[in-house]
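Researcher: Next sequence.
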Amino acid sequence: MLQLKNVRVLTLATILAALAIVMGFFKLPISQILELRFASHVIAIAGSLLGPVVAMMVGVISDIGGFFIKPTGPFFPGFTISAALTGLIYGYFLYKKPFSLKRIIMAQVVYTIAISALLNTIWLATLYQLPFYETFIARLITSAIQLPIHIIILTLLLKGIERLNLFQYIIEK
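Model: Next structure:
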């Protein structure tokens, strides 16, 4: 929580929340309930640079902010919970830890199963009265297909951030 007193941390968190909102507008719809999204990568960056608590805040702000800027359906707090837990997951696996493909894969697998495939399916089934099992199977298959794509994207992003030595600039100066 001490990080929230650091102006650089707050500034970066705000920039990342804004970027996550923008990235949330870029999605590739596969069907009515299946789509490829990229906002979670920005939340993952927040988790790796700023830790789980700040990344959770970035996730919440990006979800609520995205709804107010360009709603794509009714507001549902379940998706806000998913966004917060996304920050928690990535922050837990990636914050203050050296770059590791194994750690990135573990974080992405946990996110994919717990949030993308399971929790978001629960929210969709609840919100739109969809059959849970059929929706879950379809989303699980799609998530499994997307998993290597997301791992590659996240690896490239985090490797680039590591090369820039961004963490030390934000926190230590």
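Model: The mean pLDDT is 90. The radius of gyration is 16 Å.
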